[in-house]
Every structure is written in structure tokens, then in C-alpha cells.
Amino acid sequence: MLFKFNQEFRILIIFVSVPEQKLLFMITQTNVDIKTAESLGINAEEFEMIKKILGREPNFTELSIYSVMWSEHASYKNSIKWLKTLPREGEQILAAAGEENAGMVDVGSGLACVFKIESHNHPCAVEPYQGAATGVGGINRDIFTMGARPVAQLNSLRFGTLKEERTKWHVKGVVKGIGDYGNSFGVPVVGGEVYFNDCYNTNPLVNAMSVGLMKKDEMISAIAKGKGNPVFIVGSRTGKDGIHGATFASADITENSAEDLPSVQVGDPFQEKLLLEASLDLNKTDTIIGMQDMGAAGIICSTSEMSEKGGCGMKIDLDKVPLRQANMEPWEILLSESQERMLVVAKKGMEKEVEAVFDKWDLNCVIIGEVIEEDRLLFYMKGELYADVPASTLVLGGGAPVYDREYKEPAYYKQLKEFNIESVDEPASLRDVAWSLASNANIASKRWVYEQYDTMVGTRNMTTNFPCDAGLVNIKGSRSALALTVDCNSRYVYADPDIGTQIAVSEAARNITCSGADPLAITNCLNFGNPYNPEVYWQFVGAIKGMSKACKKFGTPVTGGNVSFYNQTSIGNEVVPVYPTPTIGMLGVVKEKNNQMSMAFKGKGSMIYLIGKSRNDISSSQYLVSWHGIEKSPVPYFNLEEEFRMQTVLRELISYSLVRSAHDISEGGLFISLFECGIPKCLGFDITSDAEVRRDAFLFGEAQGRVVVTVSPTRETEFIDYMLKQDVPFSALGHVTRGEMRIDDMSYGFVCDMKKAYMESLESQLKE
Amino acid sequence: MKFGVVVFPGSNCDHDTVYTLENILEQEVVEIWHKDDDLQDVDAIVLPGGFSYGDYLRSGAIARFSPIMKQVIEFANRGGLLIGICNGFQILCETGLLPGALLHNNNQKFICKNINIIPDNNDSAVNATLNKDKALKIPIAHAEGRYFAPEEDLSKMRQNGQILFRYCDESGVVSREHNPNGSVENIAGVCNELKNVFGMMPHPERAADDELGNTDGRLILESLIKSFEEKRVSSYN
Fold it and tell me: Cα–Cα 20 to 30 A to A26, which of A383, A509, A582, A727?
């Protein structure tokens, strides 16, 4: 098993795309046929498989169970074949992908880091506020259900163009949803990314990552075992929210999707906070066999996955489940996706101790059944048996179907390669380009966003007063810190899924490296269009191949994550998939905190060097897109081997204290990178361009594998001596000035003036 | 000095406050659970930041009815040192131990960032040892932090030296431009008439650790500890 069940679409999209769904609620236990199956999203072949497994016709409750557990979300049936090809092993890995709710990595000092990223895209498309809030809730539960305390969050957000009112509604709602939930829950946001592109106009991407810390020998497993052991449901009551969500989520967002609004769930961060503290308190007792949070597909998912893991089954009395409303049918209770709930299997005889913990936190804690030896899930209500299914047949790696999808190279791929830089004229004023890029929404400060998040609760955020390329999280009482980042430039991935994804991993590693840390492992959130579209699937396969190559190179295994297909919009007769967006969440460790490296220029007179090489390349750059209006061009220059060597050298430079600041070159190119280095202290730069490349490519090109560093004049000789021994190109650019930006003796203005435009741009675009 | 940090359900700065007082300022600290009725002989009580009881109604409005608050209010009425930070400040205003109220920020958003504050005087334990001319860089993180009190109360508070801190710029100048949330007269923290109950929206416990690169908040907590110790010495004499 590679990926565990994911949390997406806790809310969902029921009746609209399939109007017949309304009939479902009138169908009783009998009358199940292929039509019922199809209306639940089960195809004829799968219906036959179910009949074969059971040796009889399923009833409606059972069919509903299979429909959610075999949905794309739960089963990964269209992705698992390729996910299994990703590198997943390494000596740092304590819980590998698919073994538990999240990946677990040894970070030294006897501690483990538990981390994962997940999407909540479709919910956010129809209800941005609650969609984002419940996304944050879901990913954090995955972390603390393993016994880790969440210490940091990151998020990767993609919206449509800011010219659309709908986009502004998405942005405001999503940001407030993430903020309100996370701020109350009390975990700081330490990093993230926000991009805008037309392809996300009606289908924004909201990927949330949570990171927890725990003692490495105290993990709680998501397992059930031991005949007769009690099964508890704890936390919130169960209501009729998001029923069949996981099934119907696997549909494209349409212009009618807004009608699904009534099925959107409401997150309750206060309950989540209580559940966190109670879960961690419970882990201090010796009562737990296993625990799993309830996300998509609720009780049926946690009972089946925990049972399958322990090779056992459960007998559950649904009358015992605390309900939010009367008259819920058995299948509704089983499939409800009400938030802030957990399933706990405890040791028999220790029921009182478990109850005492949840009583302290005023949370529900009710025994709903017990573990049985057979591979069977038995669900009773009012004394009647409503479902009897083998647990192992429901889950990924067990009986759930696995499909091999067709893929085919899309026509656009070759067309992009026809792009030639010579067809683009150099602008008359590069100064104007610089100012325009600084206030471009994809480059400008995301202050409007991050100031709405509590970034400092927990007193661990080391980057508040020390800006750097990754979020650094203090491991109190040790010499080390965690380094965290999320990265993906989806335009590059569109241009070339394989190389674009290698770049996403490399950029994440570059950010980790620039902060003074070593890359350790990744989690991924794979946002793509419809997997039944062979061209979309080609993008998916390419992305997986690229990710494998880069992760092997950097020694950063994939510890899990989430796949989100069907990110596309049907408008009229046209279906437009989003750019393929495999977001990489990377974990690194700063072994010695005094090696923490900032991106900020330290003072006037520091020497500025470029590590890596300037290229005559403007492909897929923000400059090419927004200044020249050329959206489609090939992926920018990239060489994995060179990138790896460059990063290795940079880590050594930092460990020898030969550089005073380090910042990678990404969107907006060298110019924006230098400008960003100057922002914290309003320091400028005076540099000379490279005669071998066009000036627009030198300043704004996005060729990969480059970092800007500053060197103290007193250590410059040492720096040069060291670099000359390495097989990595470098060049002197110039020096840090008091505040003016000068390139080839021409003034580009002052950093503090450009900073104002850079800081205020996003807010003013949202207000327009 | 022995501190008690009250833990309400939904408090989320309780651990940070305990860590700062215990590990950085090396004081004795106990946690006081909201359902307890024993204050464990502490010298000072801290109501930490967070979202007590979810704060779905109005920040601090439910916490004031918490079982432990009866003891806390009695403790304060006996002259005990009581400090509320962020949500703690909101709770103290709700109980009436401190004058005024905390309204939604004027931009109607949650705001988290470093801001600057300047002591208004040196009349209270929490600002007694601070330099009145030097701004302190401290983080804020709140949605309801706009301090308000009617003019007659404000004028009394000014005369009594009850205004602890005001929002200002880096050089200590108090101006509308550097008021992050719309608080009346840029007020960031106040105390009661007897100067034993304090409330402030900025988080001094978040600016106390060398490893986070800002220790201005430590000065405020040190002022409190020093004032207490001096008073204890003088009362022995």
C-alpha cells in the first residue's frame, strides 16, 4: 500500500452532476441492481466483483460501503500502479508511505517528524471558507492520530486570475478559512505559496500540509487487533454531512456545482483542539491498541482500514454512535463525514481509563463495538444485521480494484518546443519590466495572506525575524531545527511533466539548502485533471517519473501524500484541465542552529556572487508570460546533475560560514531574487550583467540551478579559493549598496520604493 | 517567583507561556486546569492566549464563567498579581477586572505580525524597569484586539497611570499609522486602578527566546518578576 486513504472531499458534491441521486434516498435495503450501482459510481465490472466477493447480491448498505471505499479518493485505483514506482525507502524513514496515516521520519535527538500534505480542492471551489477550514482540520488529524503534536503548517494555494470576481471570493474565503481554523487550533503557518493562473478560475487548488513532532518510540498505529478489544468512537457527534462525498467527489466541477452548497460541512477548530489534547493525553496511558481519524467515508473507512491492518474484523452496533440528528439510516451513519472524530481500539479492561481522558476534555467517548478474529465487518442497528463484508476487500492493497490507464502525449508538447527566444524582442526598458514584475501577483509579497495566519504560536518559528527560503521550526532543547517548504511551478510541469516535476523537487531541495538544512524526505499532493483523459494521464505519468528521478538524486524518499484527480472545469462543452500541479512538501533538518542561513543582505559592501550559470533562456518565465503575453513555451533550462552538485557545494559553503546570505533564483529571475534579498534591510545592489546572454534573460530568465549568495569582503579570497576547487560554475555579480539598485551603471530605483509596490500589490488587486 | 498558568479548553498559548517562564526566565510554574479550584499558592496568575471555549460568541465571554475564574477573581481582589495576554486580556475585560473592551480589529481581519509598543509610564510591575523612550518589538496575533473605553474612563486611566503600553513606530513615536488594529489612543495594554491586574494584546512570551531572534518581550516579564521580588524584599525589611 502506498498512500493511505485521503481526507479530501469531506463535504461534497452530491446531487448535481447525477440528478438521479435524489432517488437514492428512497431506495430501501432491497431492490439493488446494476442501475443502483451505477448511480453510486460503481461500474458493471466492479458490481460483478462485489457479487463475487460476497457470494451473493449486496444490499443497499453494502453497496454504499463499496461505492465509497472503491471511489477514486479512497482506493487510488487509477493512480496506485504508478505511485508504487516512487522511491519510498531510506534509513531515515520510520513509517513508510502507506503504512500509517502520515509519513514518519527520524530527525535526530530521539525525535520523529510526522508530516503530510493533502488537497481540499473541490470543496473550496464551491464553499471556499469551510472547504479550506475542514482541509486544515483533516490534515492535522492525520498527524495527531499518530501521537504527534502538530508544530507547523504550510499551504500551497492556486487561484484563477485576479481579474475575476470569483477568484477574489475564492482567495478571501480560503485564506480566512485556513486562518480561522488554524489560528484557533493553535498551529503556526510557517510557509507556503500562492499562484494565480486562468486555468484555476473555477477549480482552485488548496493543498494543506501539517508537520508534527513526537518521541520516535511513541507512535500510535492505525491498527485494530485482539479479539474482544473495545472499539470507541470519540469526538464530535455524527450527522448527515458529506454522505457519499468520496464517491461523488470523483466528478468534474461544473457550472452547477454551486448548487451542492448545502452538503458542505462545517469545521469546528475548538473540538479539534480538544481532540488533539485528549489524543495526546490518551497516548500517555497504556490503553491504546490503535487509533485512526475519520475523514472521508467516516466510520466505514476507519473500521475497515484498521481491521485490514490488523488482519481482523469488527462487530459494530450503530445504535451506539452519538448522533447529531434523529432518523439516520445505517448507511448514512457509516458514510457520514462529520468532522473532528476518531476511532480508538483500546485494551479490554481499560475502558474506564480511556473514558476518563475524554471526560476531562468534555468529549464524547462511546464503545460502539469490538474486535473480532474473522476478516468481517458486521454492522448492526436495532438488532438487525445491515452489512456483512470482509474488511480486507474494501481497502487499497486488499480487494479494491487497481486500473492501468491509457496515456498519450498531447499535441501541445511538441508545439511548445518550437518556441525560439529570437522571436521575442528585448524590451526597450528593462527597468519598466523590473517594476512591473515586482508587483505581479505571482511574485509580489503574499503579506495580505500570511498576516491573517498565526505564524508564531508555539514559539518555534525561527524565520519571523530571520527570513529565509524555507520555514524553520525550532526543536526546543536540541541543537537542530526542522526546515520546511512547499513548491511547484505548474507552468513548468505543463510544459514538461517529467522535467517540470524534477524542477519542483529540486526547487524544494534548493530552498531547504539555502536555509542551512539538509533535505530529508518529501510528501506530495498530486493535483491533476480527469484520469480517463489519456493526455491528462500522460501528464500524471510524466510527473511521477520526474519525481522519482529527482527524489532518488536528492535522497529524499516519498513518505506519502494525496492524489486529487478531476481538477478541471466544464464550461459549455469544453473541459479545461488545470495545469498539472504535483506540489512537493519537503522536510529538511538544520543540524546546527547556528548554521541557519538567511536570504537577507547583511550590509553595504558585501560581495554578491551567483552560484550556477546565467543562461540565454526566458522559457516559461513569469517575464515571458506577463510582459510578452506568451503563456506557452518550453520548460526552462534544467540539469539534475548540475543542480545536485550546486546544492552540495552550497551546503558546504554554509557549513564553513563562507557565505552571509543565500537565496535561490526562481520566479522573476535574478533581478527579483536580488531585490528580495534587499527587502528586509532596504539594501540595494550594484551589479554587472553577463555579456554572453541577453540582458532580459540575465535579469528575468528562470533557468534553474542558481543561487545568489553574499560574501564578506574579508572572506572573499577564501570563498574564491574554495569555489575554484569545485566543479560548479560561479561568477561575481557586484556588491550590496545602501539602497539603490544599479545594473550596468543604470539605476533601477531604490529597494525601499519598490518594496512598497511589492508589499501592497496583492491587497490592492484584491480590492479593485 | 511562582506562576500559575490557567488552562482553559481552547487555550493555545499555555505551553508557550509555561515554556518561557520556566525554561527561559527560570521561574517556578504550575498549570491550573479550568475545572480546578486550587490556585496552588502561586504568586502570580497568567491567563494565556488562545480561543477559550472556541470563542464563538465573543472573545472571553464564556471563559469568564469558567469554574476557576471565581478563585482567580478573588485572588485579584486580594491584591494578587494577575496578567492576561491576548485572549487573557479579553477575558479580564469581560470579567470587569479591567476597564474597557476589545472589539474586532478595524480591518475586520485576524492580524499576526511584529509591531512596536512603548511603555506609557513606569508605574506598574510590568513596565517599571522598562526604558520609557525605547520601543519594544513584540508580536500580536488577534482578530479582536481593538481596545475601547469611554472618554471618562480613559481620562481616569491616564491620570492614574493605568495605560501600560501604546502601539508606536520603531523609534517609539505613537501615531495613527502605527496603530495595527484601531485601538483608542493606540492602547496596547492597561491595568486596573490598584495596579495588580494587567492586560495586553501583544505576546511578550513570543519574544523571549534568543533562538527566535527577538527578546524584547522578555523585558516585560522580567520587569514583573523584578518588581515582585523587590516588593517581597521590602516587605521583609
Answer: A383
